[in-house]
Amino acid sequence: MKFKKVWLLALALMLGLFLAACSGGDDSEGTSSDSGSDSSGEETSSEGEEESQDVEQVLNFINGDTIPSMDASMVTDEYGIQFLGATMEGLYRVKDGEIVPGIATEHTVSDDGTVWTFTLREDAKWSNGDPVTAHDFVYSWQRAVDPDTGSEYGPYMMGGVIKNATAVNKGEVPVEELGVKAVDDYTLEVTLENPTPYFESLTAFATYYPLNQKFVEEQGDKYATSTETLVFNGPFKLTEWESTSSSWNLVKNEDYWDAETVQLEKMTYEVVKDPQTGVDLYESGEIDRAGLSSDLVDKYSTHEDYRVVPETSLFYLKMNQTTSDALANVNMRKAISRAFNKEALVNEILNNGSIVSTGFVPQDFVQTPSGEDFREANGDLVTYDPEKAKELWKKGLEEIGKDSVELEFLAGDSETAKTMNEYLANQLETTLPGLTINLKQVPFEQRLELDTNMDYDIQFSGWGPDYMDPYTFLNLWITDGGNNMMGYSNEEYDKLLEETATTLAQDPEARYQNFLEAEKILAETAAVAPVYQSASAQLVRPKVQDVYVNSFGPTYEYKWASVGASE
After folding, report:
1. For residues 282 and 290, is the Cβ–Cβ distance under 8 A?
2. What's the half-sphere exposure (Cβ side, CA atoms, 13 Å) at 101?
3. Which residues is 411 bridged to in the sheet?
4. Which terminus of the chain, N or C, has fewer Cβ atoms within 10 Å?
């Protein structure tokens, strides 16, 4: 069960390190976040909007790989979440990191925080002309947790949040007992297991999108495998796409309730994994955005189109404790966590504004109730220390009775990813005597499958937040969690996280204290090895305007985007 955030942009995504919503993959796109909104989130008029009406509203982009799935119940990756976000709409949308109305116009919450009632707009339609109603949300949410569906994200996103979601998924109660009902066609009532501070932002996530039951059931097993087997209710429609397509388009959805706001008529996409190829396409005028690898940053950092965009995605090494006695040993995991030079990695290999990661929640993401940045509050928990790493490694080898260890390193197969993989493998082998690393570099979709099957030793992976709360990062490592997929388990850690979602849900101070303590446990037990927090370096044409880059949810928001007049 893999669950996203902000998702990886440009170079970070090209690395092929992400695993799902929030994991992401090899993405060669860049970003632009010119804002056309005021502090209230309402649109403001601009001269650029008038100019955009005089130019062709078409943008051309590249993507790091194919789209694994366009089924809202089944999607687990950055690409699927990105393109679902462009073509679908839930109760709310994310705009520049803020929650804005989508199909819902407003909502109320009960005094105990467990019953949310949403009023839906009556002018929303599917691209086949059917009205979007509360029944579409009920069907979609029930389908996502129905064990017969086999969704990974459904039980992960809704379990412990929507009343009875976990029980339904375990087959203990019928799907009709899920805590969601249509009071009438345009009133949706949702009952939660416990008060959930971040629930409003959850409703903007792909798993919570509505589905047209009649259409889905008519398509059967073919649903969401091609353009012809999809129906949309968002700003754009996906065209010329099949599940194996290396190119596709997004076109304006004239049936969208707010079509007047949507200025872009079309966006084209082509799969490109190599950064140099992407830059060549940019230089020739064939695409409007290109991610840069470190060598290309040196060449283009003074280019007038050069941009660096900070992100809240984290990358780390997952260490599978079920496949190797070495990785089941805490001292050897601690050794690996301290054995590679992160500063050299971000400064020399990435060279794109990414920063060293020393914890499990990114900086500049959330603040504690006292207003302190979470990362600053907990400090640097895991740092590069080769001498300590050698000491821990020697101790671990003695504990498992070996003088050498051979481990498989699973990672992406893009050119940038390969450079990163080779660097880390060399660092680990050089710092830790007796260690042999065997690289296994595969396409994004294959890596997702290998992760799900826990078929790896060490894996270079990443995560972007799906909502604005530390829980989106820290719940990855709960025992038997859908993203854990490495056999990590700590009873105290589980207890602390459970309390943040139950007894402490309405006590911000105590809740954040649990988060801080839980993060320290991850460091003490070396659950995963933090590597870096991403940023993206890219070339973006000035004509690309008002493309929002979100700190959680789909990385790019194009609803308000436009093509401005060329200089």
Report:
1. yes
2. 15
3. 441
4. C
**Comparing C-alpha atoms, which of 25, 72, 154 is closest to residue 445?**
25
CA pair distance 306, 22, nearest whole angstrom: 26
Under 8 Å between Cβ of 133 and 122: no
CA–CA separation, 493 and 495 (whole Å): 5
Tokens of 287: 């695409």
Could you give the 3-state DSSP secondary structure of residue 524?
Answer: helix
Q: Which two tokens stand for residue 55?
A: 């130019």
Buried b (16+ CB within 10 A) or exposed e, 466-477: bbbbbbbbbbbb
Q: State the pLDDT at residue 567.
A: 52
Contact 347, 333 (CB under 8 A): no
Residues sharing a CB contact under 8 Å with residue 353, sequence separation 6 or more, in sequence order: 308, 309, 310, 535, 536, 537
Both ends of the chain: CA-CA distance in Å? Answer: 46
Provide the 10 A C-beta neighbour count for residue 68.
Answer: 20
Tell me which DSSP letter residue 228 carries: G
Q: Do residues 422 and 416 lie in contact, with contact meaning Cβ atoms separated by under 8 Å?
A: no
Site of tokens 């979100």: 550
> Are the beta carbons of 457 and 321 closer than 8 angstroms?
no
Per-residue pLDDT reduced to its tens digit, 23-78: 444 333 333 333 232 222 333 334 444 444 579 999 999 998 999 999 999 998 88
User: Are 12 and 420 contacting, i.e. CB atoms less than 8 angstroms apart?
Assistant: no
> Distance of alpha carbon 141 from its chain centroid, rounded?
20
